[in-house]
Amino acid sequence: MSTILKVDDLVKNFGGLTAVSDVSMTLNDDELVALIGPNGAGKTTLFNLLTGVITPSSGAISFRGPKGTVTLNGKKAYQIANLGLARTFQNIRLFKDLTVLDNVLVAMTSQYKEGLLSTLFRLPSYYKKEAKIAKEATELLAIFDLQESVDVLAKNLPYGIQRRLEIVRALAMKPQILFLDEPAAGMNPEETADLTRLIKKVQREFHITVVLIEHDMSLVMNLAERIYVLDHGAMLAQGTPTEIKQNPAVIKAYLGEEVS
Amino acid sequence: MTILKANFKYNVSWLIIMVAGFYLMNTLMLMGIIDSFIENMLVVIGINIILATGLNLVIGFAGQFSLGHAGFMAIGAYATAIITTNSATAGGFYTSIVVGVIIAIIAAIIVGVPTLRLRGDYLAIATMGAAEIIRIIINNLQITNGPSGMFNIPQFATWPVVYIMVCVTTILIANFVRSRAGRAIKSVREDEIAAESAGINTTNWKLAAFVFGAATAAIAGSLDASYLQTIAPTNFGIMESISILIIVVLGGVGSLTGSVVAAVVLGILDTALQNFGTLRMVIYAAALILIMIFKPTGLLGSHELSFKHLFSGTKRKGRVRS
């Protein structure tokens, strides 16, 4: 296991508020890490920093990509995404008025080229490219049982399926790290169980690093190999699920103090 | 090869419609059913189709609310006016279209890079200002004959030329929208943050749509100048931008077919009301209000006429299978 992402002393200030302070963490190849913490602990802010949606006030993020180690500081969100860091959002952000297939195809945009001329004049190469890329996307959708819904508009899908599609869209980018921001939010126990299976499947079949923000402890303890705990923007603890369950600081901050 | 064959059928269907439309109009003209009055209406409709589909690309597909379309139209119009006045040949006319398009593209890049960072109302105001700057520059130049405008421009944009240009620009825009580029610009419209996170360079794609829209507006401007033979800076003010916007909204934001239908409906309505004198604008406005009340998403919403769906007998919208 080697390090794929290394975060050093990351800080984010919003005016006088320090949302993330001196956070350091490392992610290894092909592991499933959970990021937990009470509401407002800075989990989503940390995700936004790592994926370039917002820029850090200080600190360094380095990523070992296919072309060697690069720093992610100062890179735009789309550049970071194209390097291989894909994500989903806490409040689903699908392209609602596009079909399921188009949602996935958008995520593949940087993986193929259609020349301007062959696009505008519909040259044979355009049709070949379109057919090839659509086939690839449909195959990916089929892995997640979405092949029946390719022509459905994303907004017309049931909630649980929308979550699933968002994960598929992220996977379509062929990422090396997948960030899932509260994937089980708003799901009933049955849907959560489905999701747990889905995440396991993603890990098994794609061999990528998955980082997960989640409040559902059954899901976290069931899935995560390692857990990071954030509280008030600072990294409170890290360790295996068993270690975290017994860590008094975590119990105090996250689950509340025991009433004696 | 099967992919090519399947699409061949749809493409041939479109071609047949376009050629048939041309011959139908031509025959009606030869028979005298379409007089010069109606021909004038057809040309105006054609130019409005080019303008509306181009603006719909920017507003409806890329989701960038631009109110500066008339500015780019002015660039095309003046390029044609100046060049064909000096060289009154068909070659000069087509060169002038190309020159107009190139200048419009450059202007769109200069305008777009700073303004496309803005959103919604702010972008609308900024593009409106940019169009006004273009108009004022034209107003103050010697070569454009200042505020009095240019007249006696040689007429090369006859009805067949306009018809062919309408077909060509519509095909190009439709092809652009249904491609990798089209999906990318639609994703920007749907959710900019999600698009960025999906690896889309949103700034570049917004600019691409904006520049493409501006280029088609310049073509429309060239045709307009050459057909009407008289242009003045006042023709390209904010009211022109708004009347193009009305066509887009009325037809359906995000529907090219809608823009074509709305341009035709409004063109006919406008002509039919010519006899009503001052009542004309009242009825025109009332018709607009009624359509917006009963069909707030525009005549066609975001639906498109598609042979693929006609032939396979399926309807894409609203079908839920999961």
Automatic annotation (TrEMBL), chain A:
UniProt GO MF annotations: ATP binding; ATP hydrolysis activity; L-isoleucine transmembrane transporter activity; L-phenylalanine transmembrane transporter activity; L-valine transmembrane transporter activity
Transmembrane regions listed in the UniProt entry: none
Domain of life: Bacteria
This protein's record includes keyword Nucleotide-binding: yes
Keyword list, A-Z: ATP-binding, Nucleotide-binding, Transport
PROSITE patterns: ABC_TRANSPORTER_2
Keyword RNA-binding part of the UniProt annotation: no
SMART domains listed in its UniProt record: AAA
GO cellular component terms attached to this protein's record: plasma membrane
ABC transporter domain sequence ranges: 5-257
Protein name per its UniProtKB record: ABC transporter, ATP-binding protein
From TrEMBL, chain B:
GO MF term set: branched-chain amino acid transmembrane transporter activity
Keyword Lipoprotein: no
Gene Ontology cellular-component terms listed: plasma membrane
Record InterPro entries: ABC_transp_permease, LivM-like
Pfam families: BPD_transp_2
Leader peptide range in chain numbering: none
Membrane-related topology note: Multi-pass membrane protein
Main localization, broad class: membrane
Localization in the cell: Cell membrane
Keywords: Cell membrane, Membrane, Transmembrane, Transmembrane helix
Record-annotated membrane-spanning stretches: 12-34, 40-59, 66-85, 91-113, 120-138, 158-177, 207-230, 242-269, 281-301
PANTHER family: HIGH-AFFINITY BRANCHED-CHAIN AMINO ACID TRANSPORT PROTEIN BRAE, HIGH-AFFINITY BRANCHED-CHAIN AMINO ACID TRANSPORT SYSTEM PERMEASE
The protein's name: Branched-chain amino acid ABC transporter, permease protein
Organism of derivation: Secundilactobacillus kimchicus JCM 15530
